[in-house]
Amino acid sequence: MNNNILTLALGAALGATLAGAPALADQAADREKLIALDKSWGEARDATSLKKLLDPQMIGIAPQGVADRDRQIAIETAPGASAGPYEPADYKVHFIDDDVAIMVHSVRGTEPHYSMHVWEEDDGVWRVVATATTPMAK
Asked: Secretion signal: which residues (predicted)?
C-alpha cells in the first residue's frame, strides 16, 4: 500500500514537472529560429527591421551606455555604424520556459564583441526584451 502511494506521488510530481517543461523538439526548433533572428538582426541596417526584432520595452547595455529600444536603434543606424560583415559564432541558448530564452554568442568581424540577449515570445513572435554587448579584448 505504501509503495503504491509513493509511486503515485512520484508519478504526479514527475508529470507536473514534465508538463511545465517545453518539449525538446520545440526547443530545438525555437533555438534555430532564435539564431536565425539574431543573424537577421546583425544584418539589419534600418529602423523598420530593427523595430520588428526589438520589443518596445527593450532595455540594453552597449559600449555607448544604457539604451531603450529607440536609443539602440539610433546606435545601430547611426552614420558610421558597422557596415562590415556580421560573423556570429559560439551560440548558446538556454530556455527559461516556453516563451523566454537567454542567448549568448560571440561576433567576429569589424567590431568583435560578445552579446547576451533575452528573447520573449508573444503570440508566436520572438522579440528581444533585454540585451548587453561587450567588446572583445584586443
From this structure: 1-25
